[in-house]
Amino acid sequence: MVSWIDRDLRYIGVNRHLAETFNLPLDSFSGQDIGFLSTSAVFKGFLKDFFADEAAQEALKEIDTKVYGETRSYLIAARKYDRGNATFTVGIDITEQHRALSALRQAETKYRNIFENAVEGIFQISLDGHYLSANPALARIYGYETPEIMIASLSGFEQQLYVNPRQRAKAIDQLHQEGQIGWL
Length: 184
Prior knowledge:
Blueprint: E1 2-6, E2 11-14, H1 16-21, H2 41-52, E3 58-67, E4 70-81, E5 86-93, H3 95-117, E6 123-125, E7 131-134, H4 136-141, H5 147-153, H6 157-161, H7 166-178
Antiparallel strand pairs: 1-2, 1-5, 3-4, 4-5, 6-7
């Protein structure tokens, strides 16, 4: 969405996408106060502060606004023109990105909790035999207070933890041949 706004915080004009988003004709924006839609006081405050800062020529801000009763998130980029008496603004809808990031954070939390609270020992190890991560259960199984202490203490993984060190080498060879990673 694109808009042109003067120093008095009135629309000079908008693009068709912005007008269609609010189901209004293009010419209904010209001369209107930018708050006439009552969708976001934050947008008005952002532009008021932007115009008040004489040195600023560009600004970015994430803003939540209501569109047909639904909260949408936008990244607003503003740039002054006409010797600082007007601004050209572009709004990019980032609502779906926010939702995806929120879902990712929830999934990370869920799987981190599974990893940390499992009663079984779970670990990741590099091909050269160094622990990348381990959960608390594995540390307890091997008699360590924390996974960090266990990881720092172990070297020569194959000799220290495998009854038959060649078993790991055989499993790694099988993974290379089959092209799949599985549980060891």
